[in-house]
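step: validate -> pass
step: tokenize input -> pass
step: predict -> running
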Amino acid sequence: MPNLVVEIGNTALKAALTEGITLGKTFRYQGEKRLEFISDLAAREKPEVLTVATAVPVTPTEEAQLRACCRRLILLDSAHTALQERYGLPAYLGCDRAASLVAARHLFRGKSCTVFDFGTTLTVDFLSAEGEYLGGNISPGCRTRFKALNRYSRTLPLVDTPAETGPLGHSIRESIEDGVISGIMFEITGYVGLYPENHIVFTGGDAIYFVKRMKNSIFVVCNLVLMGLALITDDYAEKTLE
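step: predict -> pass
step: emit ->
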């Protein structure tokens, strides 16, 4: 019987069926009825274990609804930080970041890593070759920067992520496009330079966009968080069956 892992992010929900640590069919949902989507998916797929990692705290009523649609529930949110403690990670890390680091440790065992997650926020985290968490930073993600410029200025238009950029803009629109993308690229190259020997890992919605602009050797793992949740779920299932 498969397991079901779910990541509820700031803008979208992603889910996958898993067999052990292997990801199967994946799902994406962007809407307001996230709990209903999970319940319907669980009712259809009948998972042995349902793992839900969410940036938004789950109420007791919502938790009861989740437990009713599966045999066993693993809930990871700001009120449930055992995940971070169990894997030697600081409690302040969000469950999505923690899961991505669990996956990076597994995929690059014995290798030091710099992990970039390109989403609503841009996060960068560092792992030693021994798997020790060295720290990390958070800044606004690509689309968040475009929205902020429009929202907090009186004259700047809302611009979407451009297909191509240059070193310098020659209009207001180009200045915003080139400024935001160049700024993120400067961030990336600066962080890469801190530990040039590290394996560089990109994940998140904009990972492919930025990897095309890199000269370094980059590992792109689009479903790194879901892979980490699959590892956590499999670990939990094994221990409960001992």
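step: describe -> The longest strand covers residues 22-29.
step: cleanup -> pass
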